[in-house]
Amino acid sequence: MESSQDAILAKTLDGHITYWNTAAQRMYGYSAGEVMGRHIALLAPSDHREEIAVLLARLRRGEKVEHFETLRVTRDGALLDVDVTMWPRRAPDGTVIGACAIVRDIGDRKRAEAELTALYEQQRHVALTLQRSLMGTPPAVPGLVTASRYRPATQGAGVGGDWFDLIPLGAGRVGVLIGDVMGRGLEAAAVMGQLRSAAHALAKTGMQPRRLMQALDACVADLDVPDQLVTCCYLVVAADEAEVTLCSAGHLPVLVAAPGDEVRPLPAPVNAPLGVGDVLYEQSSAAVPPGATLVLYTDGLIESPGCDIEDSLAALAAACGALATAEPPGLDAMADRILSALRPDADGHDDDVTLLLAQRPAAPLASVTTTLSTRPGSVPEGRAFLSTALAAWDCQAKADDARLLVSELLANAVQHAQGPVTLHLCRTAAELTVEVGDGSPHLPEPRRAGEDEESGRGLNLVRVLADSWGVRPTDEERRSGSRCGCERRPGCHRVVTVAPGAVVVARGQRSQGLRLTKGRLAHTSRVPRWHRRLPPRGR
């Protein structure tokens, strides 16, 4: 025992030292003569003295204590990380008469563990910062109340492939997107970042949900990541439409929670996840009442080992139903309560968790629609229809600008598009939305007119008067729409005008300069949609 590299000592059952080898002298700094007969508590820091009594009691009961890691103190007051193994000494008749202990200095190991822990936390922080950067921060969308929660995994690097996004589409429409890249780590986060950017750009073109999924499926294939699968769901929500259009690529069902109604899943065709290849994605439209809350989430919220997913979905529906009362809490409070109900242990989940709540906007106060032909007389008919509606809704302040833009855009539709042309107006408490649709497969695009040309200036006029504009295709027709504020306060009215395939949007406060978004959209469907923001004039 004297040649052992580990400290070995013996003691009586009341804790007095009876043996002390050379290694113990090197470790603690006390010679054998200095410690013989003294109590073992001499070697324990003041805040560890109570554990000495506990260990002695276990030894008296005949227990063996193995690899007990604790702190001990040397002669000069330095603290040591040690691993202690103790066992009782017995008399020939089996009676416990004392105890022996082997003590190993594990300071080097503890320091290495601390360094590894610090390195792990640093890498985890870098990974989570990268993921949050790739996820981005969805913008606040006027008219759409939302709340979101994201919890990284508490095991491993904490990085996953969850993401969500809110994409303003113009003319009162908002794209709501959520997805989950299967797998974990930086590779999943990198794939997520690429798909989120691609999905956002594609959605801004006004692409229909099924076409967006088709394009994202091709993006996943182009990433050349073996066996990469992604679940995704994309919805288009509009204040002036009673239905929500959605396409789901293998994602968990969206829930609808409306006050006074049972929580239900939003009906959607069953489509394969992105990355399977050669899949024809389908979309559907489902009625969602104004004020209802759409609940979108990833599998980290409901999946856990040993728990059936159907039971977890039922628990989520029950949690949403308990909150969808006549006077529901705010969406932020609702999101927190759902997380507490489904994931009460914030530090005990091995997958990242994403929850997104979106409340469908209130229905417009009024709406009217008319159908026009592609003959020259349709232009004054459209102007008259707009004037009548503006007069009835007391939105006359910018009627001249509105008529001018409608004239230019309807003239463009009559001359270049295919009929019939639809003109749709709807009004909320603060905005007027005007939409024009036609059946032309071509996108209206401004061009620079020559000095001697008689045409080519109409859309440039719209471009000058508008704050921003773009194209949104649909499957049925080429439609255009616009928004304007219609509060009954002098100088605060906003007028919006529409043209074939164009949406003019104006709202809120006076714009400071012009913002122009140009770009020809991909011919992914027959119907382009333009949206423009019209700045107030003459204030």
Automatic annotation (TrEMBL):
GO terms, biological process: regulation of DNA-templated transcription
Domain PAC: start-end pairs: 66-118
CDD domains: HATPase_RsbW-like, PAS
UniProt entry keywords in alphabetical sequence: Hydrolase
SUPFAM superfamilies: ATPase domain of HSP90 chaperone/DNA topoisomerase II/histidine kinase (SSF55874), PYP-like sensor domain (PAS domain) (SSF55785)
Keyword Hydrolase: yes
PROSITE patterns assigned to the protein according to its UniProt record, in alphabetical order: PAC, PAS
NCBIfam families: sensory_box
Name of the protein: PAS domain S-box protein
